[in-house]
Specification:
The chain is an alpha/beta fold. 32% of the residues lie in helices and 19% in strands. The strands form 4 sheets. Strands 3-2-1-15-16-17 form a 6-stranded parallel beta sheet. A 5-stranded mixed beta sheet has the order 7-11-10-9-8, sandwiched between helices. It is rod-shaped.
Length: 391
């Protein structure tokens, strides 16, 4: 290959150190654990070897037990002042072992428009609705689409208890008369396209009227006791109209959108609690096992599922795709190497080492491991030798 071509190829391969993303350090703990019916040798070996590994590597090694301590072992630990190892009776992969995504969330009074925008921005199809830190409900893009397709009621905005603040935000409006506080409690949405006389035929007290720059129609709507007047196209609102609106308790919002756009947008101001799913929610907890929840997820129409932490608060979302990156629990087995004696779920774990003084038996591993087996009286003796080897 010509020298010039070699140099060009090398340039393509070489990268500026600034462009290299540093590899994240693996902080997953390694559990050092004995057999299911722990005796003093397996417990003491787990404690001592976890301590040695931590001193040698500076990484996190946790002594654990797969079952209940016997009286002899409890007495030894009490006399030496060494705390009991944590109980770890199942090492199958759990929800807390996979990446949990904290995706877009909202409160129940968020407008449908804002919820839709938030989901598009986060590139998700499911939005969690929270009350403080607690999960209150879920809404999907499908729920939002169906809400537009299935709505035929002109009193939909009031039925949902839509806030004036939501209407202002959705319509990019300005409150000309009245307070921004409060919600629409009654009334249907009317487009004042005809004459004032025609408006009277359809009007009921408390209705919401969409109107343009038409003085007579604005006046008629106020006199008929409209709860809200939405003036479209940024039309000016005469002082006389504003004064009458105050006297009748009619609020007036001015918006830059035309009447057609306002008629389409106003339904998007409805709060998401009106369409969210709040009952019978399917959620999982941090300590749930992956193999237990997979079938449940497969039967549901949702792509994402909420996760609650140990306090019952919302922690994030997972999907079936997250299982691909699940981190198996890392183990070092001491004082045994048989599957029948090992902690439940050992076949799902990543065994790193085995330290034992028994015969080699039937534990399968994912890859090459460090194995130390010696024909000595106890595993603790092997661990003692390793302390001496490391000074």
């Amino acid at each position: 290959m010509p020298e010039k071509r070699k140099k060009n190829l090398l340039k393509k391969v070489e990268k500026d150190p600034k462009d290299l993303v540093p590899k994240k350090e693996d902080t997953t703990p390694v559990y050092v654990i004995g057999h299911k019916q722990p005796d003093t040798d397996s417990i003491c070996a787990a404690i001592a070897y976890a301590n040695l590994k931590q001193k040698i590597t500076g990484k996190k090694y946790i002594p654990a037990r797969a079952g209940r301590l016997n009286e002899e072992t409890r007495s030894v630990l009490k006399k030496t002042g060494v705390p009991e190892p944590m109980l770890l009776d199942d090492v199958r992969t759990q929800v807390k072992d996979i990446e949990i995504r904290r995706i877009a969330e909202a409160s129940s009074d968020t407008s449908m428009k804002k919820a839709w925008e938030r989901m598009k921005e986060a590139d998700v199809v499911t939005l969690c609705i929270l009350k403080g830190k607690s999960l209150e409900g879920l809404i999907t893009t499908g729920d939002i689409v169906r809400s537009y397709m299935d709505i035929y009621d002109s009193d939909f905005v009031s039925k949902a208890g839509t806030s004036y603040q939501n209407i202002l935000e959705t319509l990019d409006g300005k409150m000309i008369v009245g307070s921004k506080e409060g919600c629409i409690e009654k009334g249907k949405v009317l487009i004042a396209a005809g004459s004032p006389e025609m408006l009277e035929n359809f009007f009921e007290s408390g209705d919401i009227v969409l109107v343009g720059n038409r003085y007579e129609t604005q006046l008629c709507a106020i006199e008929l006791d409209a709860s809200l007047l939405v003036v479209c196209g940024n039309a000016e609102v005469a002082n006389t109209i504003q004064k009458m609106a105050k006297e009748h308790g009619t609020r007036i919002i001015r918006t830059p959108y035309d009447t057609y756009s306002v008629a389409r947008l106003i339904n998007q101001s409805v709060p998401i609690h009106y369409f969210m799913k709040g009952d019978g929610l399917v959620y999982f907890r941090m300590n749930d096992y992956i193999e237990d929840i997979q079938d449940v997820m497969a039967q549901m129409r949702y792509r994402y599922f909420p996760i609650l932490d140990e306090n019952g608060d919302y922690a994030g979302m997972i999907s079936r795709r997250n299982f691909l990156g699940a981190k198996r629990k890392k183990l070092i087995l001491v004082d045994h190497n048989e599957k029948g004696q090992a902690v439940h779920g050992v076949e799902s774990a990543d065994i790193q080492e085995i330290i034992d003084h028994h015969r080699a038996a039937s534990v399968q591993t994912l890859g090459p491991i460090y194995y130390r087996g010696e024909p000595l009286g106890s595993t603790c003796t092997i661990v003692y030798e390793m302390y001496r080897e490391h000074g």
